[in-house]
Amino acid sequence: MRGHLESQLNDFSFEKRKAALLQLLKLAEENPAMLPPEGNHVNMHCHSFYSFNAYGYSPSALVWLAKQLGWQVAGIVDFDNLDGVDEFLSGCDLASVRGSAAMETRIFISEFAEYVANSPGEPGVSYSCGIGFSSGKVNEKGKKILKSMRERADQRNRSMVEHLNDYLDPVCIDYEEDVIPLTPSGNATERHMLSAYLDAASRVFPDPAPFWADKMGLKESEVRELMQDLALFSDAVRRKLMKQGGIAYVQPGPKTFPPAEEFYEMVISNNAIPSFNYLNGATEGEQRMEELLELLIAKGIAAFNMIPNLAVPDPQSDPDNYEIRKKRAELLKKNADLARDFDLPLHIGTEMNSYGQRKEDDLSTEELAPLQKHFIDGAYFIYGHVQLQRTLGIGYQSAWAKSFMPTRAERNRFYTKAGYLIPPGFKSMETLKSLDGSMNPPDLLKKLEA
Q: Residue 348's closest CA among 389, 397, 303, 390?
């Protein structure tokens, strides 16, 4: 029964997902040993199937995963949409999980037009997030920006499919019939298209290895070895077909993605927090991190997003890469410290939007242990903001917060402490709603402590 319900969590029907989550939570209530006690992990950057999740997880499934793994705080992040926000946050209320929701996109930073920052091979282009949305419903300006972002992504995808169909013939796909059905709300990504092409090749050829060897310019033996590991094979095909230098790749420019100012304005006006997304500290742009952060803070960022298992090579998958891992770990620590010097809370996670990525970071490793408390504090900071915005309208961007706490440092301390004091779940939400949202921050914290 449990296995069936967990599978149903990823159904494209929201009603079925919610029913499955409720039944699983009931089972867990009847069998307390079914779930572990809360541990010392957080994962604030989990893509759901509203963009692409390599495990197929819906927002509801990610709520259940957080319960299964005993995460202290969990967060979803999806590309170019907020479709999963309300489902995830309401699911967190049902399951008594501390939760947050975010959106990721690519933006263009005109002042860094000549530098590659966190989008490899793409000068001026930067992955960026809006974190801590309290709802998937946005204002009118936000609706227009989101619509524009989705339309741009759709145009890029369709153009890519045209090029790939020409190159991969007879392995061809129909965007409407083969790609869109892989998504619950039509928000397709490169990874959905990749999945469609891999499936199509297996349908056309009983043994697709010779086909892929020809199209990838590799020996058949090399392809067969890659195909033993879906993560390695998928990444190799994606690099050949879709990434820089690939058959269908088009170099982006200033008009390809929204300007930083436009995206950040949408995030702030909808009471969420813009963040810079860190890659690994090794690019020319990230080597100028202090200059970049000063520039982006002036535009509105107030957090620093990191993916540790991408920034530092994983010793499990690459045990011989010690020197690179050591250097990347030093850069991770250096830039995490710099972010905190700039009063930017840290926001970490594993993504899960690529085959082989971890479900949670191991924060006890030599590289991550020194930052563990700061990572966890960052998770509680964003959770505190989300809950106070949802219940009293006094989140990080509110007039209330800016009036009482004009500096980022003041707000960071307040929302972090509030996050630690606010229990998850509906009962806590109702208690918060009964408080006076006009009282000053010290008095509010005293109420929360009580």
A: 303
> Which tokens go with 398?
């509110």
Q: Give the length of the chain.
A: 450
Average pLDDT, the chain: 94
Residue listed under structure tokens 């975010």: 102
- What is the sign, positive or negative, of the torsion defined by CA atoms of 270, 188, 124, 117? positive
Order of all β-strands in the sheet with 125-131: 42-46, 73-79, 98-108, 125-131, 273-277, 303-306, 346-348
Of 1, 2, 20, the closest CA to residue 10 belongs to: 20
Pairing mode of beta strands 73-79, 42-46: parallel
pTM above 0.85, yes or no: yes
Q: For residue 237, which amino acid is it? A: V
Backbone angles phi, psi at 111, to 5 degrees: -70, -20
pLDDT for res 315: 66
Q: What is the pLDDT of residues 19-65, one digit of tens each?
A: 999 999 999 999 999 999 999 999 999 999 999 999 999 999 999 99
The Cα 286–Cα 128 span in angstroms is: 14
Helix locations, 217-288, DSSP H: 220-226, 230-241, 260-269
Q: Is 274 helix (H, G, I), strand (E, B) or coil?
A: strand
Distances (CA, A) of 310 to 53, 218, 226, 360: 16, 26, 20, 12
Separation CA 135–CA 87 (nearest Å): 9
Helix extents (H) in 114-218? 140-168, 190-204, 209-216
Q: What is the DSSP string of 50-100?
A: TT--TT---HHHHHHHHHHHT-SEEEEEEET--TTHHHHHHHHHHHT-EEE
Specify the DSSP class assigned to residue 278: P
Q: Alpha-carbon dihedral of residues 107, 110, 111, 113, nearest 10 degrees?
A: 90
Considering all CA atoms of the chain, what is the largest pairwise distance in Å, rounded to the nearest integer? 69
Q: What is the dihedral of CA 203, 204, 205, 206, to 10 degrees?
A: 40
DSSP track, 281-342: S-STTGGGHHHHHHHHHHHT--EEEE-HHHHS--TTT-TT-HHHHHHHHHHHHHHHHHHHHT
* Residue found under tokens 């509801």: 60
Q: How far apart are CA 305 and CA 289, in angstroms?
A: 13
